[in-house]
């Protein structure tokens, strides 16, 4: 079996090539916007939908009339139309499945960097024997830093320019599934804000908080940007500096996430995780004017921390890595009271504040790190669900209270607007805190 994957490489176009690439991107943006406008117009006047084939015929006519369009590669222009149709398709599917009025795709605006990508199918690119990337509409081979080998011949390439001024080529390849040899280990994973990952075997990985680590540098560069005159060269420079700062945070986070998920998949046969609602967890608590929300600043800080760990990315990485390496990923129901239940006797507490880092059971006297207790419950639920072949939930699902937040825990008292401000020292009881960083998980395992 093969899995589709994108292999991303840093590319270094010359100034001339960069100009040509940007030109291609601009044309693709124009094609997207024209096709978008046409679709909307025909829908509103004639009440029918214009599909990909028809839009491409319009493109052919437009190309025959305009030299500017002909200068660009037809391949990526058709690709822009394909993307537009796919975006419409996704919207309609989302509307069907959720019943919500999901907004339609909009035009690609010049502001922002969303349009600074250009996609080529098999016809639009070639790999140079001496390692360069040849693209239609771009003169000469673009230098690629081949940081790793290609597993198969790519079926498509997309070239992007990010806000920090870096060019990347993402090559669409097929990776063969390579099941890893069984380790005989199963693990429950609790994703959290204080401890990013808590494992049922007692390992705790603290939240590295990449964003907060660079908060000061980011604030400084943003101040400089705010002071710079509009349209000045210094402003452009300051803008780049802010973007570089954000890119650093993003890169560090992604690196950390990949290391964490790879370690989990390598070391365990069965991985049980919770089905977290990231969108709800990071939703604003502002409320409406009639019904203002409570603890808004505090929830905002919590949201930042939730997004800084990147639960969603960790989940999707676990999904594809589990299928790539033949591991069993089990997703446990979102409403499982994993934090409040005792992993020893099953007794459920009614209240458990987020500041309580240790779980103590009133019934059996169990004392355990809060998140490890939750991870043990997730593991138990994940293993139980597989025994129930009918797909029924083994544990009863508690009804959702009206107005209940997706964050299943009680909100913490706001501490001077900063949700990260010092809260008592972490209590280590009933377990050994084996490692603080992922790199040390394996070493810690061998030691103990
Ligand atoms: Zn108990």
Q: Can you tell me about this structure?
A:
- The model is unreliable at 388-399 and 406-448 (pLDDT under 50).
- The protein has a five-stranded antiparallel β-sheet. It has a five-stranded mixed β-sheet with strand order 10-9-8-11-12.
- The chain contains twelve helices and 14 strands.
- Helix 1 packs across helix 4, helix 2 (52-65) runs antiparallel to helix 4 (74-98) and helix 6 packs antiparallel against helix 7.
- The protein is of the alpha+beta class.
- A hairpin with a 5-residue loop joins strand 6 and strand 7 (167-176).
- Zinc ion binds next to loops.
Largest beta-sheet details: 5 strands, antiparallel
User: Which word captures the global form?
Assistant: globular
Which value, in Å, is the CA radius of gyration?
A: 26 Å
Give the spatial strand order of the biggest sheet.
Answer: 2-6-7-1-5
Structural classification = alpha+beta
